[in-house]
Write a structure and sequence with these properties.
about 140 residues, 5-stranded antiparallel β-sheet, about 35% helix
Length: about 140
């Protein structure tokens, strides 16, 4: 890994569906301006949107940190509580703890975490109930 080209942080508010997608949209625009390959931008944008929606739906707020290096892009996400009791279960396609209200809005299909893992070259998730969740996604440039 080389020198850091860019490092930015994007806050995400819990429950704020009116701004959901803004942080991931900003990330997509930044990557396009940097001239990153459009196929990679698309994968990062999908993963960023999925994690941003998870922050809005399930957390008490958090932030997404984008780190771009010459050959690698890292998206690190940290949220505040409630944490995920069973990460293996949460990683299953279709599993969701979203409320009926959230599902009525068209979210909470249980594809967020699987889509993040599918789009990233490297994916890790750590969660502590009552504390929060950390997700790290890496993308080869």
């Amino acid at each position: 890994m080389g020198a850091i080209t860019l490092k930015e942080s994007y806050p995400v508010e819990a429950g704020d569906f009116s701004t959901a997608g803004e942080a991931s949209g900003k990330i997509k625009r930044v990557l396009k301006k940097l001239g990153i390959d459009s196929a990679i931008v698309r994968r990062v944008a999908v993963a960023a949107y999925e994690v941003e929606l998870n922050l809005v739906i399930h957390s008490m707020g958090g932030h997404m940190d984008l780190i771009v290096e010459p050959d690698y892009l890292q998206l690190n996400v940290h949220d505040r509580g409630p944490g995920i009791p069973d990460v293996d279960l949460a990683m299953r396609e279709g599993y969701s703890t979203a409320s009926d209200d959230v599902r009525t809005m068209g979210f909470g299909a249980g594809m967020g975490l699987p889509n993040m893992r599918r789009n990233a070259n490297d994916f890790s998730i750590r969660s502590t109930v009552g504390v929060g969740t950390d997700i790290e996604m890496g993308f080869k440039l």
